[in-house]
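Re: beginner question about structure tokens

> Can someone show what the tokenized structure looks like for a real chain? I only ever see the sequence side.

Sure, here's an example I had lying around. Input first:
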Amino acid sequence: RRLMPSQARKWADARSPMKAEEAHRPPRPSPAQTVLPPEKKSEPRGLPPSDRKKKDFAYGGNSLLELLWQARGPVVLVSTGSCRDVALAFQEDPKLFVHQVDAVYVNAGLGSPEPAYQAPLEYNVALDPKAYQAMFRLPTVLYWLPCFEGTNTGLMWRVSRHASLYRFRQEEVFSQLAPPVQNYFLWMLDSAGRPAGAGEPSWFWQHPTHWLRALDRPVDAELLARHGRTVRSMWSTAGQLHAAGLTVTRDGRIVPVKEAGDSAVFDFLPVQVECNEQGITHWRPIGPDSPPQQSQQPPQYILQIRDPRAYATAMTRALGSLLQGLCPPSRDR
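And the corresponding structure tokens:
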């Protein structure tokens, strides 16, 4: 559902008008054994979305087709929430989708290979189980990041081998940030319920552009402490970094995938996935001794946490260092 527009635009703009096989392609983040489909060759892409007959399908799917049509190079999609927009975009124009989409990252579902641990459905899957099923039938490389290992295993909110979840107290990240960035997050977290009479009228905190004025205000220590005690759950960080060719080491450094080696705290395991209309998945790893696949499905991968004990701490440190880049200490003001 979500597209990473800044990354897609950056990658698209970096490509010249040369034919696809001669143009520069962003590095494909993958484990060492990852095999990618052949380079896509230039071919007709069908009608632009503006020239199509109006269809009764979700606005998000239509917007996605517009972006794919306008992109001058391959696009990587990162899906969060319902998978409906991506599924409908492919259904509406499979030729354009296959030509333009390099890979899809799906942040949804449960990582246990056992269907018995998948009831009830994970929230994002329950929004549209058939759309979720369609993700595993897309004719493009798929990176699957389940949110939890299972919903009835007793370990739902803990770090698991095949689950993207990690949690931290917000103060662990706030403490790494420059005052303007702290103020941005405090404004974002507190603006909806900000009472009148606290320095500014309530309308000030709810105005969509007044976060800019909030950046230069002194940091409210009480507010920082209150929000710092809140536990934050995160899911899609690994996929977004991986889509940019990056990973995280066990000590929390963000590095290129190709340079991480055995120090990476997560990677992706080649798998074959089956998903039914109810959104229940069953998967098995693919290795040298695996039986041959019966279909010509492009490669599929599941998130694999290589060091569960280090994962949450490493990802929290990486997130903090990433946000530090918004306002380095030398440019606090």
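Each token stands for a local structural state, so reading them left to right follows the chain. The mean pLDDT is 80.
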